[in-house]
Write a structure and sequence with these properties.
The chain is of the alpha/beta class. It has 2 domains: about 220 residues, Rossmann fold; about 180 residues, Glycogen Phosphorylase B (Rossmann fold). Helix content is about 40%, strand content about 15%. Strand 9, helix 7 and strand 10 form a beta-alpha-beta unit. The radius of gyration is 24 Å and the shape is globular. The protein starts with 10 loop residues before the first helix and ends in a 5-residue tail after the last helix.
């Protein structure tokens, strides 16, 4: 065996090494800003992206809006979350988001003395008018960054402006447009006049052309975008998967402890935004048709008070409970205490049909089978491929009840095997640790590019 000679150091070498070390320590970490057009209180996709970028060496700020009585600033480890209050001429048009990660029913401030038709014209042609006051504050107060990750169509226009200013200030100013929804193909815009909607689409295409990269939430949406927009490269898929999670033994029972549901009563869980066109009425009617089950709403949104009233309705009392949302880090253990999750969203738009929302992945990660609407194409294909739940007609409470029975009334060993299949697919394929790798590779490639 040979031994390397001992290292020697001259004063000159020591000084050079010290200078190199000082230079390395003085090199600033790249800065990433995640732009979220809601209070991020919290926004689970944004939080996962932020944590991954921080682990990759970025200083990370989540820049959200004010609302929900959230503090102006807070931290998640090394990540700073700041909420910027709308200002300037557009502040009076702001929408204060009042519910959780995805927002909720807006509470719009009065637009002053303008007549109704002028208000509508302003909202149409200054679209999206309700976030322009937030944009004004960001342009004034947000320090420049090397990477801007814009979550959705309400954040991409200002991300492009901020990036241009950042490049003038010597930063890289790269922009990633995260198409979290095919929003202009959703029921949010199904009543917009066709010429106006066509104009909105042209504006989005211009924003896409100015972006450095596009990411989205699943492959079918990526395929749709590639067929719709003249992209330089296909969109990078960043699934809404959750980090791998192993349920404790015995399984936790948070929901029953919070509600008093007896052990023999089955728990059907709805996660997420509580609002219109979520199938909440149909789900409630389906559950009361089961032999002994309770529907638990765990979430946020404009219908929360209405649903709490239903909790006290004699028809539903003891079989309908509305609980506030929990932090994304706590969702798996709460979801694991349900017997089945239900996603009864009507597939009344392209956006709905292709959706794979957080609640779907959260259920599978917790080992909780799902009943999904028959026309929710992407989720249905995943459920059917691996036997992870049941499919039903979301408009028909009787068929939803049938789908719930298919899951709940199978034998104990069969149900345990279904739960294990849910866990298995998230351990091997559908987990954040796997899903985020193409995104991190994309970001590294953008950081390595030269000037524009």
């Amino acid at each position: 065996m040979t031994t390397d000679p001992p290292l020697t150091s001259t004063p000159a070498a020591a000084n050079a090494a010290s200078a190199a070390g000082n230079a390395a320590s003085a090199t600033p970490r790249p800065r990433a800003v995640l732009l979220i057009a809601n209070p991020a209180n919290p926004y689970s996709r944004g939080l996962r992206v932020a944590r991954s970028l921080a682990a990759a060496g970025y200083d990370v700020e989540i820049a959200g809006t004010t609302g929900e009585q959230a503090p102006p600033e807070e931290r998640d480890g090394d990540i700073v979350i700041r909420r910027y209050r709308p200002s300037g001429r557009w502040a009076a048009h702001a929408t204060e988001m009042t519910g959780g990660a995805g927002g909720s029913g807006p509470r719009r401030r009065r637009l002053g003395p303008l007549s109704g038709w002028i208000q509508r014209a302003v909202k149409a042609f200054a679209w999206p008018v309700h976030v322009r006051g937030w944009w004004t504050t960001l342009r004034r107060d947000l320090p420049p960054a090397d990477l801007y990750h814009a979550f959705g169509i309400l954040a991409i226009p200002v991300a492009l402006d901020l990036a241009a200013a950042a490049r003038r200030a010597g930063r890289q100013g790269r922009v990633v447009y995260d198409v979290i929804d095919v929003i202009l193909e959703s029921n949010n815009y199904d009543r917009a006049p066709r010429p106006l909607l066509a104009w909105y689409r042209r504006r989005e295409r211009r924003w896409v052309r100015r972006s450095d990269a596009v990411v989205t939430v699943n492959q079918p949406i990526a395929d749709h975008l590639a067929a719709t927009w003249p992209l330089r490269a296909p969109p990078t898929v960043l699934l809404n998967c959750q980090p791998r999670w192993t349920p404790p033994a015995p399984r936790l029972d948070h929901i029953r402890h919070a509600t008093g549901i007896p052990p023999e009563r089955k728990v059907v869980l709805f996660l997420g935004r509580l609002g219109r066109e979520r199938g909440l009425e149909q789900a409630a009617e389906a559950v009361v048709r089961l032999e002994d089950a309770a529907l638990v709403m765990l979430g946020f949104g404009p219908w929360a008070d209405r649903l709490r009233e239903r909790d006290r309705d004699p028809m539903f009392v003891g079989h309908h409970f509305t609980l506030p949302p929990v932090h994304p880090d706590d969702v798996p253990s709460w979801t694991a205490s349900a017997d089945v999750s239900i996603i009864a969203v009507p597939a009344n738009s392209l956006n709905q049909r292709l959706s794979t929302p957080n609640k779907f992945w959260e259920s599978l990660t917790a080992g909780t089978p799902v009943v999904v609407g028959r026309d929710l194409e992407v989720m249905r294909s995943i459920v059917e491929a691996d036997g992870l739940g049941a499919i039903a007609d979301p408009a028909d409470p009787y068929d939803l009840a049938r789908g719930l029975r298919d899951v709940l009334e199978q034998g104990g060993e069969s149900l345990a095997a279904m739960r294990e299949r849910c866990l298995a697919v998230t351990r091997t394929a559908y987990n954040w640790e796997t899903a985020v790798q193409p995104y991190l590779a994309l970001v590294a490639g953008l950081a390595g590019l030269g000037g524009r």
